[in-house]
Amino acid sequence: MGPIESWEGTVSDPISSDADLLASLRAGQVESLRTLYQRYGGLVYTLARRILHSDEEAEEITQDVFITLWEKDAYQAGRGSLSRYLVVLARSRAIDKLRSQTSHRQRLHKWHVMMADASPTPLDMATLNERQERTRQALENLSDRERQVIEIAYYEGLSQSEIAQRLDIPLGTVKSRSRQALFKLRQTLETCL
């Protein structure tokens, strides 16, 4: 374990109730969070670890649960004990993470299946090669300055503000060059279709 490793060796306050510690925490006393972590950190971590089967992800969930406890006043004593609240919160976060991972894996699997089934035909390859050649020729028809702005934006993923900083030119100039270049590309590529 170890989301907050420096707290592990300190002695917790067995006398303070959870309610007292929460009140102290709301008053800004971080020591109260330390004590609550020492009481319930192992429980939260163990539950997250059991659901996610990963030490790192369990540590992340544990940290997230205690940060939520610290930053938000969401716990309501009338609805149950603090330990139950922390367990429900940890379980929810761990299941959300698991669902997110499962969803991502399913999308990735579908994409792989789709790509495996979609082997290009000779006609598809010829069409793709023709489009690539038309695009290359359209880019060659741009001025060097226009092409530079477009290539930086598309190949390096920089924003117009970042391009302006890199090229040391005004943002308005970058926007004008980008607009002109895109207009010229559109005209050139539309006439080819």
Would you kindly provide a written description of the structure presented here, covering whatever features stand out?
The chain has 193 residues and is mostly helical. It starts with 17 loop residues before the first helix and ends with a helix. 76% of the residues lie in helices and 0% in strands. It is built from 8 helices and no strands. The protein has helices at residues 18-26, 30-52, 55-71, 82-117, 122-140, 144-156, 160-167, 171-192. The model is unreliable at 1-12 (pLDDT under 50).
Write the SSE topology.
Elements (H helix, E strand, L loop, with lengths): L17 H9 L3 H23 L2 H17 L10 H36 L4 H19 L3 H13 L3 H8 L3 H22 L1
Helix pairs in contact: 1-2, 2-3, 2-4, 3-4, 5-8, 6-8, 7-8
Shape: elongated
Biggest β-sheet strands, sense, barrel: none
How would you classify the helix and strand content by structural class? mainly alpha
User: What portion of the residues fall into strands of 2 or more residues?
Assistant: under 5%
Q: State the total count of DSSP E strands.
A: 0
* CA radius of gyration: 28 Å
User: Ends: how far apart?
Assistant: 61 Å
Mean pLDDT: 84
Poorly predicted tracts of residues: 1-12
**What percent of the residues sit in helical stretches (DSSP H or I)?**
over 70%
What key phrases describe this protein's structure?
mainly alpha, 0% strand, 193 residues
Provide a compact summary of the structure:
This protein has 8 helices and no strands.
